[in-house]
Amino acid sequence: MLLVQVLIPLLLGGIAFAIRSNLKRPWLLPLGGTLHFAITSAILLGKTPAAGDAWLGLDPLNKVVLGFLSLLFFLCSVYARGYLISRPNQPNRIFTASLLVFLAMLTLAVEAQHLGLMWVAVEACTLSSAPLLYFNQNPRSLEATWKYLLIGSVGIALALLGSYFLAYSALHGGMSASLFFSDLVREAPHLSHPWLRSAFILLFVGYGTKMGLAPMHSWKPDAYGEAPGLVGALLAGGLTTIAFLAVLRFYQICNAAHDVAFVRSMMVTIGLFSMAVAAVFMVRQRDYKRMLAYSSVEHMGILVLGIGIGGAGIFGSLLHMINNGLTKGVLFLAAANIHRAYGSKRVEDVSGAIRRLPITGALFLAGFFAITGSPPFGPFFSEFTILRAAVAGGRFWVAGLFLVMLFVVFVGMSSTVFAVVQGEPSEKASASGYKDTFFTVAPIIVFLGLVLLLGVYVPPPLSRALHEAAAFIEMKP
Amino acid sequence: MTDWLVIAGMVLAAASGVPGLWQERERGGGERLATGLMVLGALCGIVGAGLAIAWPSAGIDLGWPVPGGRFAIRIDGISALFVIQIFLISALGSVYGLGYWKQSEHPRDGRKLRLFYGLMTAGMALLVCARNTMLFMAGWEIMALAAFLSLAAQDDQRTVREVGYVYMVATRLATLCLFAMFALLFTATGRFDFAASGPINSGTATAILILAIVGFGLKAGVMPMHVWLPGAHASAPSHVSALMSGVLIKMGIYGLVRVLSLFPHPPLWWGQLVLVLGCVSGILGVAFAISQHDFKRLLAYHSVENIGIICMGLGVALLGRSFGNSTLVVLGLGGAILHVWNHGMFKGLLFLSAGSVLHATHTRDIDELGGLAKRMPWTALAFLVGAVAICGLPPLNGFVSELLVYLGLFRSAALPQGTLWLTGALGAPALALIGALALACFVKVHGAMFLGEPRSQHTDHAAESNRLILVPMAVLAGICFLVGLLPWVIAPVLDRAVLAWAPELSGQRLMVLAPLSWVSLLGWLLLLALLVGAALFRRHLRAKPAATTGTWDCGYVAPGPTMQYSSSSFAQTLVGLFSWALRPKVTNPDTRGLFPHPEAFTSSVDDVVLDSMLIPAAQLGTRVLHWFRWVQRGSMQAYLLYILLTLIVLFFWK
Amino acid sequence: MHALVGPLLVVVLLFNLFLLGTSRLQAVINASAGQGVILGILTLCVHEGFSGWIVLITLITILLKGVLIPGMLLRAIRDAAIRREIEPFIGFLPCLLLGALGTGASLIFARTLPLAKEHVGSLLVPAAMATVWTGFLVLTTRRKAINQVVGYLVLENGIYIMGLTLLHAMPFMVEMGVLLDLFVGIFVMGIILNHIRREFSSLDTAHLSALKE
Amino acid sequence: MPLLLLGIIGKTKAAFAGRVGPPLLQPYFDVIKLLRKGSVFSRTTTWVFKAGPLVGLVTALFAAMLTPLGGHLAPISFEGDLVLFAYLFGLGRFFTVAAALDTGSAFEGMGGAREVTFSCLTEPALFFGLIVLTRLSGSLSLSTMIGPGLGQAWHNGGAALVLVGFSLFIVLLTETCRIPVDDPNTHLELTMIHEVMVLDHGGPALGLIEYAAALKLFVLGSLVVRIAIPYSGNVWTSWGVFAGGMVLLAVLIGVVESTMARLRMAQVPILLVAACLLSAFGIVLVAR
Q1: Among B residues 559-598, those touching chain D with beta carbons less than 8 Å apart
Q2: Alpha-carbon separation of residue B463 from B357, B447, B466, D47, D103 (angstroms)
Q3: Would the ipTM clear 0.90, i.e. be above it?
């Protein structure tokens, strides 16, 4: 079944090449998204056996991720249809195809149980997402794509080196160096620590580049700034999540190998540093899409910070992974609509969004409040859980810095967001033809609804699954 | 049962604005429906809370599947008073809004405003009833955001946007402090409910206190942390200002009271700190108020002052608790809570009447007004009642609560303990100073707005506002009188509050400790005497009809409106006395020569903390951060270098 | 472990230094190609015994790293009509010195790591480190986009050498996947390069720094 | 009795000026005459203008009811009446000044401004004094504070009481608008406080105001006298002593008024701050 789930999008991608009409083709996306989501839910609800093998399989951790990603892609695919229809004269053959391939590779990366296979899948994600960035085909998007591709590939190369190191530490441990995660975790105590540490550093930097942790984040603002908002949502919610999943898997191995102190302090440092960098660049940020990119950097920092803190922090950051992804969906898609309506992503040209696009503007504002951790939205609980864990762990400095960063980020972000949302729209903006349609608004509303839901009611199955995942990460052989 | 009533009130209030959203812009049906729902919800809430006072509520405790969350609601003596106040003021405000913010006059933002107004009410009601920190935070932030959004309803005006930004930043800082505080609280007690905990080690306790004072103080507008308050209150629609100033800022007080109730044995310096903060806030607040030209800003600064008085009461209560002295606790907390209530009433009244004036004259500048008492007699009367009440003069409600605080201060001054009583001894004169200054300020503003001759043509077309605006004001004025004349009705309720705050020290009854019956008696007598006197005076006038002429101006032939003593000149000496804090900007052109050009003397007072400290600091910080931008310089080589360096650093760190 | 491994690795290191030292793009690309070929041969030598799979891998490696990718790059520079790297961010001599230092450092670093018995004394690990380092140097110091691609290629080569240490621990599928990804990666980069050339009519990264704060 | 004080003061000043001066009962004649007159109101004014004098008088009366005379219990006394005492005067002030502003004249406005400004400084002084008394007597009721127990208090904190007495005397001079703060005789200068506030009041209104002023003088005076002479023997002697004290006080005021010059307005606050400091220092003295 899992294999099918990977193959279907690939197949559709192939079909996408075949279809001629620029207007019919986009329908493949909702189709693929729906199928994928259907299969996922069937599997998670236990209707269908996952039927994994040694290479593809489900464990408590990637179950959660799979469900989340499938949902994310489903909503984005609905939006994508509306978006592409709204730009009929922009050729979307390659876009559609690579979007579907991207989905396939995401799924593969999630379900992969083998170190090498996962690496291949993640690299494939990077490559298949490159054309997505280049959708607008102007010099700026070209530059963004170039940077994204090269930096991403370097990062992934480092990850590969790290994988080799890990394998070598297994080899040196004298065990038959299989690179299946289950074996690695089981045999972890025998791994040779020097190699393991070096491996983790490389892997962390490598996949951290994909996550966009500072200082490896440099591709992010360019890529998110130039790509269509839809792609931004998928990268910020999907690709980064995959990379985070990878980091989690290696953290699990280090943890099983009883060699976690260094790893944790490293994660805390990088996490705080990412938040700080994001804060620096969010103050007086005049470009609201780049602002979202930096916000993504910040939240990646929060994720690894939570893991580094440990304890309840792990649960917190797993929950935050979902909250952040969904909220980013709201923000990026809403930003995309605003961008379409105003034809600019500079704050100077954009104002009064809530009057020009009442629904989108309101959603953008709500998404901003959500992402900055205001109750009763979901992110509040995850961030608060992480803070709690830090305080409970007696790490008052970490907690203090965490809060300071959150504050600075809020100050910076709010001035930009308010400038966009409030005030009077310019005549040019009012003249532009764009209107909110069902396909471009409904997905955002659903996203926001989910974020709100996670704030007022975390479904018990979900929280159970998250707790299992956290336990799974902390598992000691 | 009672709890469910209150919850029903919350739901109705929250939903009040929703149906209107489907009304088209110009039709007014939505607003009436919204008001109806709001009033209905308010009734539910008030009845529920009232019952909860009579028969303490069992409370509700349902599962709430979010991390650390339980849907725990309980209404004790403290909550009940706040609930009643919240629902009362917001219901009156929403009726007032019918006349003041007609949908037909405000097609763009009317619906938004009503929606967030209801949400704000619901959020406040939720947070004062919540017994679970997560639920509290939820209510808190709903309130904060709704307040921001209803403040920003007129976001097409630049000043409103700026004010909203300042408010938002301040309230977020507060929220983050509360994050930290609740996290500490959880670590110390291991639980998410406001349960009186075991001994908390002093370090944590101190941290919690500081965070609570900053976090809640920001919301309440205690002096150094009041920065958002004047602007916000001035720019918001008046019934929203009334709700914000009358109720919303009190949520900070509520939080402080609730959190402090967790500490059975606070160190002495806690009480002293709160008391001193109160004095500073009170004196400087009123000093700033005197120097304002915008009457809504002036009222806003008076909120700062009254919050100061409330804090003084709270400080006395804390002192009492650390001495284990029940008298001080009862007097101090009773005074504080009662003043919270009273301030809600008379400040609401003042803002509503100010709004009525604004509605009629479209100016907020005191020196543009004058002589309105003839054109808007009822508004003038309402404002006068509010003014007398806020100055804490008998026989109105302000006097009762200030009396309690005074008694607390005097009692603490009479304490035998070493030199600790000095704080109390200094508190009483400070309160006296505050009272006198407030009196000066309100005589000035009332005189300048309503008495004398008009100073500008703004007042020419001023006419008395309609009933929808007047009735809520009348109700509030009535309450001011009732509380002032029948304080003993409230006393048992306050005893309940004390019981909820410090159960171990709630032995004594307020009636015994404070001469409330005397106050009530003398109040009635005073009114009686005044009426009799008035009757006699009138008889005398009928006997000897009075002639009317122009004001006699020491033989000056043509006294004109411009020759009146303007409010600025009225306040000049006092502003001079406080110039060390107010830093007034004065332009005083010297007029020399035989025929000097027409010149104008102007003096204005900015908010020292905001305009001369925070904003420059923020700009500096921005510049510093901007300097880091070169890191993101667009060169790929640099970016790859960062990755390399990270690797190297990590490998060396390993 | 074949006797040839050591000498071959030395040659790889020499190629590294050559890459750092030369300015002519063609030479740079050829050097990387040579490196690729040698890696192919190394694969054959490192692996004990002789099986069809190994030969296959060797051939694919040589084909990709030695022929296809360099050819693509050469075509790119021919189209773009650029001959040499104009003044890199840091001069060639410092680059060389840094490279040499890096090589030394990687020798020391490899000491700190405990090696499996069959690799004790072999140059595999340090050579891998040194090559990765070289790749990074090229990536961070050169101005021409082509050169950066080459740098990435060298980086991959280094990693490949590391991969050789656990050739038998590694199922071939992964190997193939690696090579495939490498190929696709470079391929996509090539496409982008073409776009860049069309957009900016040059391959100088100076044109690629419009997006910044 | 209150108006008599005015008479005595007048006499004393006359004596210093070497004149015969008006008869002691002159103030009574004035007030009665005023009450008989008809009244004139400005067009500008509203009911507030009429309310001013009335409220002023009524509040003064109530305050008087709270004041213990010569060690005897006041007609009304309870724990905490001192606050009511102070705030009643506040209420009176509020309406007097409001009435002044109601005329819309520059002079009245100025007078009102000064009145409230200076009261901002006298109030703290008064409360400092009251704190000292509370500290000494342990009671919150005027009647107990300066009641029979006062003699005992002199033994504990005599020095403090002296300071308080002085500062209360200054408060008295200010509140009742006497030289060196204000000059009750002048009417047409920019230098006055109380008198200028009531420029527009005439007839009965003025009469009420005059009487209220005298009453205020009497009430505050009785405090000062009691603190100065804490004698309490049997009823008659103590009344006698008290009456004598009041007369002395009146004479003293007269002497002060005839010997001192009125301060410049700018210097008045300094005097009042001095008063505050005196009683604050008193607090420090009793801080044992």
Answers
A1: 559, 561, 563-565, 569-574, 577
A2: 9, 18, 9, 19, 21
A3: yes
CA-nearest of B40, B462, B89, B18 to B239 is B89
Tell me how far apart the alpha carbons of residues B606 and B584 are, in angstroms, rounded to a whole number.
7
- Per-residue pLDDT reduced to its tens digit, A366-383: 999 999 998 889 999 999
State the smallest CA–CA distance between residue B120 and chain A in angstroms.
14
Which residue, among D169, D182, D171, has the nearest Cα to D248 in the 3D structure?
D169
Residue-wise pLDDT tens digits, B382-438: 999 999 999 999 889 999 999 999 999 998 888 776 666 677 788 899 999 999 999
Size of interface B-D (CB pairs under 8 A): 242
Q: What is the phi/psi pair of residue D183, to 5°?
A: -120, 110
For residues B3 and B43, give the distance between their C-alpha atoms in angstroms, rounded to a whole number.
13
Task: Compute CA B308 distance to the chain's CA centroid, rounded to the nearest angstrom.
Answer: 10
> What pTM value is reported for the model?
0.93
Q: Is the dihedral of CA A147, A153, A156, A162 positive or negative?
A: negative
B-chain CB neighbours of C159 within 8 Å are none
User: Sorting pLDDT into bands at 50, 70 and 90, what band is C170?
Assistant: low
Calculate mean pLDDT across residues B47-68. 87
Nearest to A327 by CA among A413, A219, A218: A413
| Amino acid (one-letter) located at A421 | V
pLDDT of residue D288: 59
Residue carrying the six token digits 């920001």:
B218
Put simply, the answer to whether D94 touches B430 (Cβ < 8 Å) is: no
Task: Let me know if residue C163 belongs to a domain.
Answer: yes
**Domain residue limits, chain D:** 37-286
Question: Number of C-alpha atoms within 13 angstroms, CB side, residue A296?
Answer: 39
Report the C-alpha gap between B394 and B520 in whole angstroms: 10
CA angle A372, A376, A377 (to 5 degrees): 50
Residues B267, B200: contact at Cβ < 8 Å?
Answer: no
State whether the Cα torsion B89-B90-B91-B96 is positive or negative. positive
Q: How far apart are CA C111 and CA C113, in angstroms?
A: 5
Distance to chain D for B615, nearest Cα, Å: 33
- How many domains, in total, are found in chain C? 1
Which helix (H) or strand (E) covers residue A423, if one does?
A: none
Contacting B residues, span 55-84, partner chain A, CB-CB under 8 Å: 64-69
The upper half-sphere exposure of residue D91, i.e. CA atoms within 13 Å in the direction of its Cβ, equals 31
C74 is in which domain, residue-wise? 5-208
Residues of B in contact with C204 (CB under 8 A): none
Query: Which tens digits make up the pLDDT trace of A303-335?
Result: 999 999 988 999 999 999 999 999 999 999 999
Q: Please report which residue ranges of B362-502 form alpha helices under DSSP H.
A: 372-375, 377-390, 397-413, 421-450, 467-485, 487-501
The pLDDT score that the predictor gives to residue B24 is 74
Q: What pLDDT is stored for residue B389 in this prediction? A: 95
What size, in residues, is chain C? Answer: 213
Q: Kind and range of the H or E element at D41?
A: strand D40-42
Q: Is A39 helix (H, G, I), strand (E, B) or coil?
A: helix
Q: Say if the Cβ atoms of B640 and C213 lie within 8 Å.
A: no
Among chain A residues, CA nearest to B627: A280
Strand-pair partners of A287: A346
Residues 6+ apart with CB under 8 A from D65: D74, D75, D76
- Give the pLDDT of residue A51: 67
Residue pLDDT, tens place only, D133-157: 888 888 888 888 887 778 778 887 8
Of C128, C181, C188, the CB nearest to A130: C188
Q: Which of B569, B448, B601 is nearest to D110 (CA)?
A: B569
pLDDT grade for C26, boundaries at 50, 70 and 90: confident
CA distance to B50, B571, C131, D161, D280, per residue, from D276 (Å): 46, 21, 85, 14, 6
SS3 C169: coil
